[in-house]
Target: Peroxyureidoacrylate/ureidoacrylate amidohydrolase RutB
Amino acid sequence: MSATALLIIDLQNDYFPGGKYPLVGIEAAAEAAAGLLRAAREKGIPVVHVRHESPKVDAPFFGKGTTGAEIHPAVAPQPEEPVIVKQNVNSFLRTDLDEVLKSKDVGALVVVGAMSHMCVDAATRAALDLGYGVTLAHDAAATRDLAFGGSEVPAANVQVAMMAALQFAGAAIRPAGEIAAEWRG
Model:
């Protein structure tokens, strides 16, 4: 396998302002992801979209058939770009993502999306486990404030911790603009 693909994870309406579960910095992350998407399309790099969908319409977010579960217009797929629908945190779990990537001779991924501490983390680790080379565009991923043990953890700290952990796990962590510039050559 030799090709690189852009993997866009869960950039869906519910994560944006006015949605059911808005993330900190989601608009800037989507803008960076959209820049990578444009560069990938210009270069002919395969693009695969992942969309999370809860089986229940009344889910807290990403309810089946809701506008909130739709991919955000900033990174809307083109007809020839596969959209993998998942119901788990890990984009590879109980989906055909690995088969789709293999059918395109993909051996490396550039990952963008949301949430950094959940689905981006799980997909990145699974991809590494499956033998893919992974680059994560850190500024094209977003998260939210979290809490643990009575302490509030600001989204910026969550993001830094996740990027450090994924880099330690073997992913390359780079800014989206730098990757896009390389693709534009």
Observations:
- The domain at 3-184 is CATH 3.40.50.850 (Rossmann fold).
- DSSP finds five helices and eight strands in the chain.
- Helices lie at 26-43, 97-103, 116-129, 155-169, 176-184.
- The two ends are 22 Å apart (CA to CA).
